[in-house]
Design goal:
Blueprint lengths: L1 H27 L2 H6 L10 H11 L4 E4 L6 H9 L3 E4 L3 H15 L17 H8 L7 H19 L20 H13 L3 E5 L10 H11 L3 E3 L19 H7 L2 E5 L18 E6 L2 H4 L11 E4 L2 H11 L8 H21 L9 H11 L5 E5 L2 H9 L8 E2 L10 H11 L5 E6 H7 L2 H7 L5 E6 L4 H11 L12 H7 L3 E5 L7 H13 L4 E6 L13
Parallel strand pairs: 1-2, 3-4, 3-5, 5-6, 6-7, 8-9, 8-10, 10-11, 11-13, 12-13
Helix pairs in contact: 3-4, 5-16, 6-7, 8-12, 9-12, 13-14, 14-15, 14-21
Family: Belongs to the TPP enzyme family.
Keywords: Membrane, Metal-binding, Thiamine pyrophosphate, Transmembrane, Transmembrane helix
GO molecular function, one term: thiamine pyrophosphate binding
Length: 539
């Protein structure tokens, strides 16, 4: 009897193996899933409806797009859900507009999601595309037809079942109590502390007004970069705008709050070896960037910079930085800014002094203005001259200097703050990327104001290329009539040159009136050359 027992065991194992294989195949092919999740072949709903429901559940107010058949179901469904569809003239503008809304509203950051087109259209349309017009004959034809039909059923199986669409929690790293205590000890003993803030400090969850109050209570001199420009208002006694390199060399404690030691801080070489460095950043890689070469943090904290500053202020309640330190730095600011104003009055060889145009707009712009920076040389000058009025009132492309952000950033900003003046400071080179969006501003009733520094040149590049390599090749542009282009797109365009320089203030005020009355305006200012930015680098 023993051999028969062995055979029985073998047969049993074989049967189990076959059944297991069949179950695995049924699982991989979705057959098991279809047993519990039915496909409604009669429904007219489509994947765009689900996308719209999720976006609505997440509080999304705007969709920026350049229309295409592959996304039409999403756009149509979102419009039905009450989400505003804003179509632009270039895909890049749509991305930049969404970026601006995220920065100004607190949506946490960029996410990429790709939707296969067969998941977006309704069953009856998709099924037509799955029909094989001339299937192979015989067994192979039946297998192909079955496989395609099964795949189609899998796509729509359980598609309209209720699901949790609430936002997922966002993990934000925080400084530990022990790290905070060590920082309190360092800062409390400092005689010449400095705080350098980067865009990351403005991110949620800490409201920017809370961060501003924390900084004002600390009384420590602050250098503001990126989205932090304007955080302390227009004329704060602790906001230092000039001579950063000298201040950092003299400081005994430096707090890098969301600031990265990249080229903007000379990779850390602007920091003194004698200074105690407190670095705070959410990203570990950015936190320690170049610390193996040019600088070393005394305390490195992987955590949220804004929350850190509030906790630092609370821990030092009643303590303030010695007043003579910020006062001395502010005196340096006054000296430098007086020199800048004098420089603005110098005559250029032809056309207007660009600094004069920037000073004029800075003095006349409304207190609720949002400034969008898009350019090289002219915008680099604007960063020294123009003063954002408050928190989250400055938008620039960041460390990579991406050109072309102007139209999209301004569009997003105007939608977020419809009552505010929104200014785009353009170089004439960067304007070429998004001047067509004046059509978008007109159609979507988002009247912004563009100030164009038109020197018929990619000046930031030319300044180095000509003396180094002896040629201006590819740097020259033309004094193009950009104001006429704005008129053609339904906006209002103005030209300012040396022959009507005395009307600069009047034209700026008229552009402001145009915006209040619902018309986007462009001021095309023909500018000459100055040596204001000699020594700045572009490579």
């Amino acid at each position: 009897m023993e051999p028969f027992g062995v055979v029985g065991i073998v047969l049993g194992s074989f049967t189990s193996l076959v059944l297991g294989g069949l179950l695995f195949a049924a699982y991989k092919l979705g057959i098991l899933y279809q047993l519990f999740h039915k496909t409604d072949t009669k429904s007219s709903k489509h994947g765009g409806d689900i996308v719209a429901e999720v976006l609505h559940a997440h509080g999304v107010k705007y969709i920026f797009t350049l229309v295409g058949g592959h996304i039409s179901p999403i756009l149509v469904a979102c419009e039905k859900m009450g989400i505003r569809i804003v179509d632009t003239r270039h895909e890049a503008t749509a991305v930049f507009a969404a970026d601006a809304v995220a920065r100004l509203s607190g949506t946490p950051g960029p996410v990429f999601i790709e939707f296969p087109i067969d998941t977006l259209y309704p069953f009856h349309l998709v099924s037509k595309e799955f029909v094989v017009k001339n299937p192979p004959k015989g067994l192979m034809g039946r297998i192909v037809s079955w496989y395609l039909h099964n795949h189609l059923m899998n796509l729509f199986a359980g598609a309209w079942e209720p699901r949790d669409m609430s936002p997922l929690p966002v993990h934000i790293p925080q400084a530990t109590d022990n790290q905070i205590q060590k920082c309190l000890e360092l800062v409390s003993r400092a005689k010449k502390p400095v705080i350098v803030l980067g865009s990351q400090a403005t991110l949620p969850p800490t409201p920017v007004d809370n961060i501003r109050k924390a900084l004002e209570d600390l009384g420590i001199p602050c250098f503001l970069g990126g989205m932090c420009r304007g955080l302390l208002g227009k004329d704060s006694p602790i906001h230092i705008r000039q001579n950063r390199r000298d201040a950092l060399k003299e400081a005994d404690v430096v707090v890098l709050a969301g600031t990265v030691c990249d080229f903007r801080l000379s990779y850390g070489r602007t920091l003194s070896r004698r200074s105690k460095i407190i670095a705070v950043n959410r990203d570990k890689t950015q936190l320690l960037k170049n610390s193996d070469m040019f600088w070393k943090p005394t305390i490195a904290i992987q955590g949220d910079a804004g929350s850190f500053l509030v906790r630092l202020s609370e821990g030092l309640k009643g303590h303030r930085c010695p007043e003579e330190w910020p006062q001395s730095l502010k005196a340096g600011d006054a000296t430098k800014e007086a020199a800048n104003k004098a420089k603005a009055e110098e005559k250029t060889e032809y056309h207007l002094n660009p600094l004069k145009a920037l000073h004029c707009v800075d003095e006349l712009m409304a207190e609720d203005s949002v400034i969008v920076a898009d350019g090289g040389d002219f915008v680099g000058s604007a960063a020294y001259i123009m003063k954002p009025r408050g928190p989250l009132c400055w938008l620039d492309p960041g460390a990579f200097g991406t050109l072309g952000v102007g139209g999209g950033f301004a569009l997003g900003a105007k939608l977020c703050r419809p009552e505010s003046e929104v200014w785009i400071v353009y170089g004439d080179g960067s304007l070429g990327y998004s001047i067509a969006e004046f059509d978008t501003f007109t159609r979507h009733k988002t009247p912004v104001i563009a100030l164009v520094g038109n020197d018929a040149c990619w000046s930031q590049i030319s300044r180095e290329q000509v003396p180094m390599l002896g040629s201006n090749v590819a740097c020259g542009l033309a004094y193009t009539d950009y104001h006429i282009v704005a008129d053609g797109y339904g906006g209002k365009g103005y030209l300012i040159g040396s022959e009507n320089e005395e009307k600069l203030n009047d034209i700026v005020r008229q552009a402001q009136r145009d915006a209040r009355e619902g018309k986007a305006a462009l001021i095309n200012v023909l500018i000459g050359k100055t040596n204001f930015r000699d020594g700045s680098i572009s490579i």
